[in-house]
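Researcher: Let's do a round of design. I'm pasting the C-alpha cells now; please hold your answer until I've finished.
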C-alpha cells in the first residue's frame, strides 16, 4: 500500500524545510553562484513534483502499487467516465488535494508572470516618457537621489538618475552600468520570476528563503560580470557611493519602488574585495552542486517513470 507515496512524501518534506534552510545558510554559493542557482531551481522543481506526486500516489495506490501505471488506470477509467470502484474517500481526498496543488502552482505561476510583465511594461513606458534617452537602452531620470536599476524583458531599459552620474567617477559609473546590463543581457528576471511566483502560490518560509537567496545570487552574477569589465575596486567604490542597486524583478505590489537587491551592500562589497584564491575543496563544490541539481530532478523523474 502507498508504495510510491512514501519516498515522494519524504522527499517533499526534505525539500520543503531542511534542504532550503541548509542551502540558504551555506557560504559556498558566494563562490559558485551559477551552480547554486541551478541547485535552487532543482529544489523548486523536485519539490513541486514530489508535493503533487505524493498525494497522487496515495490516490492511485488501490489501482496499482506504481504511480505511473496507477495513473494510467485512473486516466483510462476517467476517459470512459467511470470512477474506479476500489477508490475510497481517503483516495478521493488525496486526488483532490493533488489537483488543487497542481492548479494553484501552475495558475499562480502563470498569473504572476503576466502581472510582472504588465508592471514592467508600464514602468518601461513611464521611463520612456519621463527620462532622457541616452541610447537605445539607457534612460537618465532628472532626479538628485542616486539610483540605478534594470527594467528587464525583450526590450530592456537601464535606468539611472542624474544623482548617480554626479556621485560616481567614470569607471564607477561604467561598473554600475555593466552590472545592470548583465541583468538585462542574461535575462536574470527569468531566473527570479518562478521563485517569486512559487512564493505567491505557497507563501511559506522555505519559498521566501529561496526567493531571497536566488535574488541575491543573481546580484552576485551581475557583480562578477561588472567586476570583469570595470574592475572590482571600481564596482566596490560605486556600491559604497550609491548603495545597492535594484534587483531584476520589480515588486509585485502596486506603487512600490524597485526593491534593493537581496544581498546587502556591505556583503557585496566584502565579497568583491576579499576574493581569495579558492582551495581544492572550494573548487570541487561547484561541480558537486551541479551534479546534485541534476540528481535531484532526474532521480524522482526516474522513480516515477520506472
Ligand atoms: Zn542588480
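Researcher: That's everything. Go ahead.
Model: Designed sequence:
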Amino acid at each position: 500500500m502507498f508504495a510510491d507515496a512514501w519516498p515522494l512524501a519524504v522527499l517533499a518534506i526534505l525539500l520543503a524545510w531542511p534542504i532550503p534552510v541548509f542551502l540558504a545558510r551555506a557560504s559556498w554559493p558566494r563562490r559558485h553562484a551559477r551552480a547554486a542557482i541551478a541547485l535552487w531551481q532543482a529544489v523548486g522543481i523536485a519539490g513541486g513534483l514530489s508535493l503533487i506526486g505524493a498525494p497522487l500516489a496515495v490516490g492511485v495506490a488501490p489501482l496499482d502499487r506504481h504511480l505511473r501505471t496507477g495513473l494510467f488506470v485512473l486516466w483510462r477509467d476517467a476517459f470512459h467516465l467511470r470512477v474506479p470502484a476500489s477508490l475510497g474517500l481517503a483516495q478521493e481526498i488525496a486526488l483532490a488535494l493533488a489537483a488543487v496543488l497542481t492548479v494553484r502552482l501552475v495558475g499562480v505561476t502563470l498569473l504572476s508572470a503576466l502581472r510582472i510583465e504588465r508592471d514592467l511594461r508600464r514602468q518601461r513606458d513611464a521611463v520612456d516618457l519621463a527620462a532622457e534617452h541616452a541610447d537605445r537602452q539607457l534612460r537618465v531620470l532628472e532626479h538628485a537621489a542616486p539610483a540605478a536599476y534594470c527594467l528587464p524583458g525583450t526590450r530592456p531599459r537601464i535606468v539611472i538618475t542624474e544623482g548617480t552620474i554626479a556621485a560616481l567617477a567614470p569607471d564607477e559609473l561604467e561598473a554600475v552600468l555593466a552590472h545592470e546590463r548583465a541583468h538585462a543581457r542574461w535575462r536574470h528576471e527569468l531566473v527570479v520570476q518562478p521563485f517569486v511566483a512559487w512564493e505567491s502560490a505557497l507563501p511559506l518560509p522555505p519559498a521566501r528563503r529561496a526567493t531571497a537567496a536566488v535574488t541575491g545570487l543573481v546580484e552576485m552574477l551581475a557583480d562578477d560580470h561588472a567586476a570583469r569589465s570595470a574592475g572590482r575596486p571600481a564596482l566596490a567604490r560605486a556600491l559604497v557611493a550609491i548603495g545597492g542597486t535594484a534587483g531584476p524583478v520589480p515588486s509585485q505590489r502596486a506603487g512600490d519602488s524597485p526593491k534593493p537587491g537581496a544581498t546587502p551592500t556591505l556583503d557585496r562589497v566584502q565579497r568583491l574585495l576579499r576574493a581569495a584564491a579558492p582551495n581544492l575543496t572550494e573548487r570541487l563544490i561547484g561541480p558537486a552542486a551541479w551534479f546534485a541539481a541534476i540528481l535531484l530532478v532526474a532521480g524522482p523523474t526516474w522513480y516515477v517513470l520506472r
